[in-house]
């Protein structure tokens, strides 16, 4: 059985891309993972300007979303990155086998650093090394992610391979990504050439998991499709808007995009598709939103769940760190 690990940024504004690309995979991984480990990455959140007084609130928001989506602390390890100090220590130790040139070329570093006005923090450059430490500390085999994290996954494989070659084969596990076949890159509803994103997308084109049902319906009704006349209800590289809607509908219903295409063959236009997908998303998110409201109120229960997860996570990560320190010659003789 595989060790599964993934991480997610703490924000109160998780969107449909996070849900379809990642969160539904986390939930499915609980029964396969041995164990399945999910981490809310507060340390990563410090690489761009942020409000310290709000960070813990955002961690609680994300914890409640993940629990509401179906993560069960009895069946997975759910914890906050900043509670397990092994992540930061391993990050430093891995910098010795991380290539500056490679970090410099990361798309996310390029995009995020270009967006900074005052300070481009060194943390932004080292972000993928911390991400590598997250996964490698648990010797995870499988990492469920969306398409936008593929490059970071490749980098972490290089780091693990270089570490093993330099300090000892089999100290670290070289992880594999698990990117879903459908829904790995949910697109902005207004600008379907871009991915749905909290920071880089449009407000009307981003469907947040906690949006009111009417707001969700409205965003889908106004989704940009294309000007094919008559409308062509099929997927294709030349039809990003329509493809996105079909993929979303298929994902939230748990069916194949082909079956959605067949079902829509008789539809008159894009309007039918937009209404169908809006309704399906409202229906899928309704129970999640209801559970979220109940869970979010009880902050001490959220903290208890995170603390319980952190102690399990620490026990695993501490073993890896002991091995890493030993092969690197760091600290007193074990
Ligand atoms: P974050 O918080 O930005 O995103 C969480 C997950 O959502 C996926 N995702 C998408 N999937 C499909 N369509 C989209 N439009 C879309 N937007 C986001 C992301 O691919 C991700 O899987 N750096 C990571 C957090 C992280 C991590 C890790 C991930 C830290 N350590 C270790 C894996 C392993 C991030 O910012 O995710």
What does this structure look like?
It is globular, with a radius of gyration of 21 Å. The strands form 2 sheets. It has a 3-stranded parallel sheet, with helices on both faces. A two-stranded parallel sheet has the order 4-5. Helix 2 (52-69) links the parallel strand 2 and strand 3 (77-80). By secondary structure, it is mainly alpha-helical. Helix 6 crosses helix 7. The protein has 2 domains: 4-178 and 299-328, HUPs (Rossmann fold, 3-Layer(aba) Sandwich); 213-293, Tyrosyl-Transfer RNA Synthetase. The chain has helices at 16-29, 52-69, 86-95, 100-105, 107-115, 122-136, 150-167, 213-221, 240-253, 257-263, 270-297, 299-328; strands at residues 4-8, 36-40, 77-80, 142-144, 176-178. It binds tryptophanyl-5'AMP. One of its GO terms (biological process) is tryptophanyl-tRNA aminoacylation. This is Tryptophan--tRNA ligase. Its EC number is 6.1.1.2. Homodimer. Its main location: cytoplasm.
In short:
With 334 residues, this protein is mainly α.
Describe the secondary-structure layout:
Layout (H helix, E strand, L loop, with lengths): L3 E5 L7 H14 L6 E5 L11 H18 L7 E4 L5 H10 L4 H6 L1 H9 L6 H15 L5 E3 L5 H18 L8 E3 L34 H9 L18 H14 L3 H7 L6 H28 L1 H30 L6
Parallel strand pairs: 1-2, 2-3, 4-5
Helix pairs in contact: 2-11, 3-6, 3-12, 6-7, 8-11, 9-10, 9-11
Bound molecules: tryptophanyl-5'AMP.
